[in-house]
Amino acid sequence: AAASGSGGVGLCPLLLPVLLLFLPGLAAGPAGMLQPRDTPSRERKELGGLWSFRADLSPGRDAGFAQRWYRRPLRQTGPVIDMPVPASFNDITQDPSLENYIGWVWYEKEVLLPLRWLQGQPAPRVVLRFGSAHYYSIVWVNGVQVVEHEGGHLPFEADISSVVQGSPGTLCRITVALNNTLSPHTLPPGSIQYMTDKSRYPKNYFVQNIRFDFFNYAGIHRPVVLYTTPAAYIDDITVTTTSSDSVAVVHYQVSVVGSTANSLSLSLRDQEGKVVAAGDGPVGELKVLSPNLWWPYLMHENPGYLYSLEVKMQAQVGGVLLEDVYTLPVGIRTVHVTSTQFLINGRPFYFHGVNKHEDADIRGKGLDWPLIVKDFNLLRWLGANSFRTSHYPYAEEIMDLCDAYGIVVIDESPGVGIKLPESFGNRSLQHHLAVMEELVRRDKNRPSVVMWSVANEPASELPPAAHYFKTVIAHTKALDPSRPVTFVTDVNYALDRGAPYVDVICVNSYFSWYHDPGHLEVIPLQLTAQFENWYKTYQKPIIQSEYGADSVPGLHSDPPMMFSEEYQQAMLREYHAVFDKKRKEYVIGELIWNFADFMTNQGTTRVLGNKKGIFTRQRQPKAAAFVLRDRYWRIANESSCLPPVITSHSLFL
C-alpha cells in the first residue's frame, strides 16, 4: 500500500550525502551470522536499557565527524539525553524536530567487561552485534572504528577482541553514528528535496521524500549484545531437509574459523532430549526415522515441532585444545510449488493470514516483548496461519516464535518504494543483491520461512525492471535453491516485466477503495478478472497479498460508507466470496492489509496513520477482526487433518 509522502524538516544536510555514501570503513563481511546463544562455550551480555543520545543539529549534520565525537565520552561533546535501546528515537521526547529529524544521530553506551573475556591464552573472541539499526551505521569501540553497515532491519557485527583486549581496564565505550537519510539507491529508496522558494520556506529547508506508506522510524531498533566464542569457533551452519513418511534427512554444512577442527560432531535431539541421529565432519547427512515433521499452525495437533542440532568442535590453537558448542533449532519440512498449489510436506497449504508492521505507540519499531507475545496471541485467536514481513525483515525474536508456533512466513526484503528509474540502476541492484545475501544468511535455516519476497509494489512496468528482477530473483535462488521466490506487485498483469521470473504471483489490489472508491458492487467483476488474467498469462498459483479498507474505530454507517467499520466488513465479505470460488482452482492464499493500524507520514488521507488494521494500533479488535476470525477458523476446519471439533477456543491460550 505504497504512497508518496514527506518528512524530516530541518537544516540542509549539505555534507550528509558525502558522509553517508563515501565514508571509508570496515564493511560487514560475508562471514556467518549465527544468532547469539548461551552455550557451554559462549556467553552473552545484553546492552539494552538507556544509552546516551545526541542529534547532530549542525547546518551540515557533520559536526560529530568534524569534532570527532567518537574520540571521547559523548557527554563531553555537548548536551546528551537518555534514549532507550531498543526503540525508535522519534516518539520518545516532546521535541517535534526529533520526531521528523533527518541526518546523523549519535548513541553511546559504556559497559564493563568481565575479566575472563579479556584474559587467557588464547583469549576468547569478543563480538559486538546489532540486531538492526536504521539506516546507516558506523560503530566505534574506545574510539576505534570497528564496523560500518548500510541498511536497516538486518543484523551486523564486529570482532572487537583486539580493541578491548588491548585497552587498559575493562571499560568498553561503544559509540554509534546513525543516519536515516534515504536516497534513490538505498533500500528502501527515498530522496531529499530542497525547498528553494524563499517566499514560502525558511533558508536551508528540506524534506525527506519517500514512496512507501509507513513512518520512516529510525534508531537502534533491536537488541545490542556482546558475546564471546573461543578463538577457534563455529562460524556458520546451513541446514536443509527432505522427508518421507518414514524417514527424513537433515543435510548440513558447517564452517569453522580460527583453526582446522580436530573433530566436529553433530547430535540431533528431539524435544525430549533423546539423540535421534548423529554425525561428524563439516558436510553430511543425518537420517531420522519416523520423524516429527514441522507443520504449520492448524495443520497438525503439534505444530512447529523443532529438533535441536548440537554442533561440537574441538581445535588446537597455540598448543591449547579449544571446544566450541552451538545449538541450532531445526524443523523438518519440505516446500514445493505446482501450477495450482503450494505444498508443505506434500500437502496443500492455503495462506490465511495477515500483513504486519513492526510498529507501536512510543517505541516505534523498537523490539518489545509484551507487544510481540500479544501479537502472536491475536494471530492464533484469529486463526491466522501465516504472515508476510511487510515490508522488511522482522526481528529474529519474532522469527523464533514463528518457528516455535508454526506460523508460516513470507520473508520480505526492505525493497519497498522502488519507483524511480534511477532506483533500477546498477548501483541500486548491487545493494539489493547484498541485502538478499544478508537476509538469506540470517533466515536460511528457519522452517517457518517458506518463500522469499524481494520487493513490494515496485514500478515493475518500467523497462529496466525486467533485468533488475530477473537478476535479483536468480541471485536469491542461487543463495537458496530450497525455497520459491516472489515479489509483490500492484502493476497490471499485461505490463509487469518482473512477473515472468517469480514462482508465485503475489498481487495487491484495493477495488472499491483506491479504485472506484465507495463502489463495493464492482469488486466481484474486477477481482475475478484480476485472478483470471494473471493465471491465464502465467499459469502460476496466486496469493492475494494485500486487500483492505481503512476504518476509524467506532465510526459506524448503515448503509456502509467509507472509513466506517461496516464498510471494512462489507469489503472483506465481497473479496471473500471471490476467494472462495478461486481457491478451488489456483488461488493459494489471502493476506489482509493490515493486522493493526500503524503510523505513517502526515497527509490529507492519513489521520494519525493508516487505519486499515483489523486491530487498532493498541491491539483492540474492530468489527472486521470478527469477520476474519470466523472465516479463518472455517477454512482451518475444512482443510485440517485434525478432528472437526477444533474451534477458535480450543488450541491455545
TrEMBL record:
Residues 47-230 form the Glycosyl hydrolases family 2 sugar binding domain. It is an enzyme of class 3 (hydrolase). InterPro entries: Beta-gal/glucu_dom_sf (IPR036156), Galactose-bd-like_sf (IPR008979), GH (IPR017853), Glyco_hydro_2 (IPR006101), Glyco_hydro_2_AS (IPR023232), Glyco_hydro_2_cat (IPR006103), Glyco_hydro_2_CS (IPR023230), Glyco_hydro_2_N (IPR006104). One of its GO terms (cellular component) is extracellular space. Its EC number is 3.2.1.31. Keywords: Glycoprotein, Glycosidase, Hydrolase, Lysosome, Signal. Its main location: other. It is found in: Lysosome. The keyword Isomerase does not apply. It catalyses: a beta-D-glucuronoside + H2O = D-glucuronate + an alcohol. Inhibited by L-aspartic acid. One of its GO terms (biological process) is carbohydrate metabolic process. Homotetramer. Belongs to the glycosyl hydrolase 2 family. PANTHER family: BETA-GLUCURONIDASE (PTHR10066:SF67). This is Beta-glucuronidase. It comes from Hippolais icterina (icterine warbler). The lineage of its organism: Eukaryota, Metazoa, Chordata, Craniata, Vertebrata. The gene is Gusb.
